[in-house]
Amino acid sequence: MVNALIPAEWLALAPTLVLALTAMVLFVFDSISPRSTNRPALAGIAAIGAIVSLAIAVWFAVAGTGSENADAGYDLWFVVGESQAGAGAINLFGGQMVVDQMALFFMIVVAVVTAMVAIASYDYMAGHTYQAEYYSLLLLAATGMSTMAAANSLVTIFLALELASLPSYALVSILKTNRGSVEAGLKYFLIGAFSSAIFVFGISLVYGVTGHLQLEAIADVVTGEAEPGSGHDVSEMGGLLGLGLLMLIGGFAYKTSSVPFHFWAPEAYEGAPAPISAFLSSASKAAGFVILFRVFTTAFPLEATAEIIGLEWTHAFIILAIATMTVGNFAAATQENVKRMLAYSSVGHAGYALIGLAGLTVDGGELVLGAAMMHLLVYGFMNTGAFLFVALAEYWGVGRTFEDYNGLATRAPVACAALAVFMFSLAGIPPFGGFWSKYFLFTGSLEAASANPAMLIVAATLVINSALSLYYYSRLVKAVWIDDPVSGVDRDFGGSPTGLYAAIVFAAVMTLVLLPGFGPVADLAIDAASAVVVS
């Protein structure tokens, strides 16, 4: 009955559509009461929409929607139809979008980060104008990021990327009376426009060589299983295709804040409201990586592409991963501003995730790609929680340097205990969730080294940078728990913001729970990686 009323493809995209519908509800609420500052209603609508999207995405993933091994009796028949059960990825709109385990995995990441940010913003945005606009833009950006997870064509990827980016520019600069926020938004916009131009140019070159935009169609041309739509011999245009791939990598590097397109991240994260910094550094980064993973594993098979351009594209990601890890961590170690330290730390973690593509080989690489996906999920909790702690400090009027954070544990022991969990998890110390994801990245790198010895350098770089990160993460823990407050500074802060506390504690609990419960996460990530690598 449901399928007769609503097309199956719309229901398969339910996690994304719920976010879009929630944004529309917020727009309607604002149009009815444009001067409303009803924070409970606005934050509640945004949080409920994100939680519903999360619940649906988790339900779909557990049921095996879009998986080759889905149980026909348990698959969501009312969503995809019984004929789809166990049939693998669900192609929608002529292959322009796809719902598979990888798409659902990253829809979960986007939804859970959006929910935490919406709840935390209830307190943080108190007293600020543009309340309804803030939550509407947040949900619109989340819609774009969730759409990126299912995008299966270069044109839908670009449209989803812009849907995620345009609201993000406004969110960064939404504190209109704060010069730093406006300046950060302008810088973010200018660098974003430049990188979008590079990305579109790369798309045009790929289209010019292959005559297609849909990822599987591009792969068919590259492997010689189909004639190029442009009617020429692809093997004779390796240079042009290689240049197109390089420009695509540049566009993705911006979205994932990878070197050398990382300069916007410290500026944007420092000037933006802290919950938006958490949103961009976690959900936006995950969305950037899902399209990066999908494009290169699906559209450009490693061996066939190497024969055309004369070089395996994994070499570019090896260089990018090493440079991004190293630059991010060494820059973070020199910061005195806590927010900028976390921003550069975010750059370093982009380098860890890049190992997922650097470690792919002709024979596979499911473990290392799955490990990168695991890391992005764990990172969504621990990094979001770290930035939300900064939001709590900003809410209380605490300064931005390490010294300003001295002795905060005497005022907020629960939040500071959560901060310690985030910091040690980001460093990859057991028994926290970040340990397992880095462990799988390391073992995956060693496994890939049998086919590509350069991965030994990547594995060594991962260990060295993780050790370095422990220095600046523990420095913040030391400041809040051990160092005495600066003399003359009043520590009698007002109130205990419920929303911020709830989001921080939830993120800390999930960071702890993920280590003993990492089995299902690892299975889902590796299954999703296996599907795209094999295909």
TrEMBL record:
GO MF: NADH dehydrogenase (ubiquinone) activity
TM spans, by residue? Answer: 12-29, 41-62, 102-122, 157-176, 188-207, 237-254, 275-296, 316-334, 341-362, 368-393, 414-433, 453-473, 500-518
Annotated ranges, domain NADH:quinone oxidoreductase/Mrp antiporter transmembrane? 151-460
The record gives the membrane topology as: Multi-pass membrane protein
InterPro entries per record: NADH-Q_OxRdtase_suN/2, ND/Mrp_TM
**PANTHER family in alphabetical order:** NADH DEHYDROGENASE
From the Swiss-Prot or TrEMBL record, give the protein name.
NADH-quinone oxidoreductase subunit N
What organism is this sequence from?
Answer: Natronosalvus rutilus
